[in-house]
Specification:
The complex is a heterodimer of chains A (138) and B (153).
Chain A (H helix, E strand, L loop, with lengths): L3 H22 L5 H7 L8 H22 L11 H17 L4 H10 L3 H25 L1
Chain B lengths: L2 H22 L4 H8 L10 H18 L21 H17 L3 H6 L6 H20 L16
Helix pairs in contact in B: 2-4
The chains are: A mainly alpha (138), B mainly alpha (153).
Chain lengths: 138, 153
C-alpha cells in the first residue's frame, strides 16, 4: 500500500481532531497558537489548551501501544541547526499568526485568504531552504 | 460554557491529532525534508496528510456555518482577518526556513517530546524562546524601542 495510505489516514485523524475542537469547543486547532497561549495568564480556556497539548504529547506513545512500534524519526540536523530552526519557527509562527495546523489544516479548510498566502509562502520558503541547505551542506 | 467538557474535548482532540501525526509520517524530519526537496529526491506522500486533514476539516467548517454555537461554548472563536500584510508573509518566510532546516513544525515537534530525544527538546526549547522573543518585541513598551515589524494591534 506504500506510504500514501497511512499518510492519508493520519491526515484524516488530524482533520477529525480539528473538527472536534471546532464543533465542540469552538476553537481553531492551531498548535503554535495554543502552545504560545500557554505563556499567558491562565484564563478559563487555559486548562483546555493545556489538555490539548498534553493529549498531543500522548499521541506518539498511544500510537506505539496500538501498533507495536514507535513512529520512525530520523533527525538529520545538528543541535546548533535545530536551535536556530526552533527560534525561526517560534518567532515566525507568532509573527505570521500560525503554522502548518492553524493556517494549513484549519485556514485552508475555510478558504481564508490570509492562510492561503501563508501556506504558499512557508511551503516556498521551506523548498528554497532545503534546496540551499543541500547545496551548502551536501 | 462547560469547562469540564471542554477540557475532555481538548484532551481527546490533542490525542487524536498526535495519533494522526504518528501514523502519517509527519514526525519523521527526514521525510518532511524529502517532501520539501522538490528539486531532488522528492517524496510527495506527505501531501496526502494535508489533503486528508483539509478535506475532513472543511466538512467541519461547513457544519459549523449551520450552527449558532459550538456544543460546549457560547460562540465560535474563528479568526476573521482578511488583510494580507507584511508580518503574515515575513512570519511565514521565517517559519518555512526553520521548517526546512530542521524538518520540524510545531505540532510534530511538541508531539515528539514524548520520545525523550534530546534534539527534540532542544528544538522545542528554542521554539518557545522564539515565541517569547516575539512577545517581547511586540509588547507596547517592550525593549525600550519601537518594534520594526510588529503588526498594529
Amino acid at each position: 500500500m506504500g506510504p500514501y495510505l497511512p499518510s492519508l489516514a493520519g491526515g484524516v485523524l488530524i482533520g477529525l481532531s480539528a473538527v472536534m475542537l471546532l464543533l465542540l469547543n469552538g476553537r481553531i486547532a492551531g498548535v503554535s497558537g495554543l502552545v504560545a497561549g500557554l505563556g499567558r495568564r491562565p484564563d478559563r480556556r487555559w486548562l483546555a489548551d493545556l489538555a490539548f497539548v498534553a493529549g498531543l504529547i500522548l499521541g506518539p506513545p498511544a500510537f506505539a501501544a496500538l501498533s507495536g512500534h514507535w513512529p520512525e524519526m530520523r533527525i538529520v540536523a545538528s543541535l546548533p541547526v535545530l536551535a536556530l530552526a526552533g527560534l525561526l519557527v517560534g518567532f515566525g509562527t507568532r509573527l505570521g499568526s500560525g503554522c502548518t495546523s492553524g493556517h494549513g489544516v484549519c485556514g485552508l479548510a475555510r478558504l481564508s485568504p490570509r492562510s492561503i498566502v501563508a501556506v504558499l509562502t512557508f511551503l516556498a520558503s521551506g523548498v528554497v531552504t532545503v534546496f540551499l541547505a543541500r547545496g551548502l551542506l551536501g | 460554557m462547560r469547562p469540564a467538557a471542554q477540557i475532555l474535548t481538548a484532551l481527546a482532540a490533542g490525542l487524536t491529532f498526535g495519533l494522526g501525526l504518528a501514523l502519517s509520517g509527519m514526525l519523521d524530519p527526514a521525510r518532511v525534508r524529502g517532501f520539501l526537496d522538490v528539486t531532488g529526491a522528492w517524496d510527495p506522500s506527505l501531501a496526502f496528510v494535508l489533503a486528508g486533514a483539509v478535506s475532513v476539516s472543511a466538512l467541519g467548517y461547513a457544519v459549523s456555518r449551520r450552527l449558532r454555537a459550538p456544543a460546549f461554548e457560547s460562540r465560535f472563536a474563528i479568526p476573521s482577518g482578511r488583510r494580507i500584510d507584511r508580518p503574515l508573509v515575513l512570519g511565514a518566510v521565517l517559519f518555512g526556513a526553520g521548517w526546512g532546516l530542521s524538518g520540524f513544525c510545531p505540532g510534530p515537534a511538541v508531539a515528539a517530546l514524548s520520545t525523550g530525544l534530546v534534539p527534540v527538546a532542544v528544538f522545542v526549547a528554542a521554539m518557545l524562546a522564539g515565541m517569547a522573543l516575539h512577545r517581547l518585541a511586540t509588547r507596547p513598551s517592550g525593549l525600550g524601542s519601537a518594534p520594526t515589524s510588529a503588526p498594529a494591534r
